[in-house]
């Protein structure tokens, strides 16, 4: 009787670690490795005690229960409570206006580290510092214009 309880306990611990690995811990962690060790231990123990038939039956029962628990966990309402429901509403930066040319002078609105915002004339555009960090409220000169961003350097350079 104790032997069946030990096998069951090993499989239950393996199942708990597998659920933890699949739903809560990103990547391959120690929980996933330990889960495989516990599954293997339970099946090996069943093989030692009950032979090949016992190990095959244990393997099949463990696989069916594991699949059922994972499917049940995915369909449960409790999983919805911890799931992320955020919508992504960001957009790609807009095109650089045609009247912005190489050599134009502007001022940084935000720190360019290396990306940020600059104002050139009446236009606020996404900018990238060429080689350095540029603080806000710094005069800058456009050295290259790309479709969605302008490349700038400090004005005094």
Element-by-element helix/strand order: HHHEEEEE
Classify the secondary structure makeup into a structural class: alpha+beta
How are the strands ordered across the major sheet?
1-2-3-5-4
Low-pLDDT stretches are: none
- SS field, number of helical segments: 3
Overall mean pLDDT: 88
| Largest sheet descriptor | 5 strands, mixed, barrel
Question: What portion of residues is helical?
Answer: 40-55%
Q: Per the principal axes of the C-alpha atoms, what is the gross shape?
A: rod-shaped
Strand proportion: 15-25%
Alpha-carbon Rg, integer? 30 Å
Ends apart, CA distance between termini? 84 Å
Give the tally of β-strands. 5
How many domains, as an integer?
2
Characterization of the model:
The chain has 157 residues and is an alpha+beta fold. The protein folds into two domains: 81 residues; 50 residues, OB fold (Dihydrolipoamide Acetyltransferase, E2P), CATH 2.40.50.140. 47% of the residues lie in helices and 18% in strands. The protein contains three helices and five strands; from the N terminus they run H-H-H-E-E-E-E-E. The protein has a five-stranded mixed β-barrel with strand order 1-2-3-5-4. A hairpin with a 4-residue loop joins strand 4 and strand 5. The longest helix is centred in the middle third of the chain and has 46 residues. The protein is rod-shaped, with a radius of gyration of 30 Å.
């Amino acid at each position: 009787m104790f032997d069946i309880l030990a096998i069951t306990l090993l499989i239950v611990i393996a199942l708990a670690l597998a659920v933890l690995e699949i739903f809560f811990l990103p990547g391959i962690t120690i929980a996933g490795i330990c889960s495989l060790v516990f599954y293997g231990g339970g099946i090996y123990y069943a093989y030692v005690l009950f032979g090949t038939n016992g190990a095959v039956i244990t393997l099949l029962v463990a696989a069916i229960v594991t699949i059922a628990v994972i499917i049940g966990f995915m369909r449960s309402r409790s999983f919805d409570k911890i799931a992320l429901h955020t919508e992504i509403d960001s957009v790609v930066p807009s095109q650089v206006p045609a009247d912005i040319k190489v050599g134009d002078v502007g001022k940084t609105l935000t720190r360019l580290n290396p990306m940020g915002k600059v104002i050139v004339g009446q236009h606020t555009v996404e900018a990238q510092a060429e080689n350095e960090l540029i603080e806000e409220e710094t005069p800058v000169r456009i050295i290259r214009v790309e479709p969605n961003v302008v490349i700038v350097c400090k004005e005094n350079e």
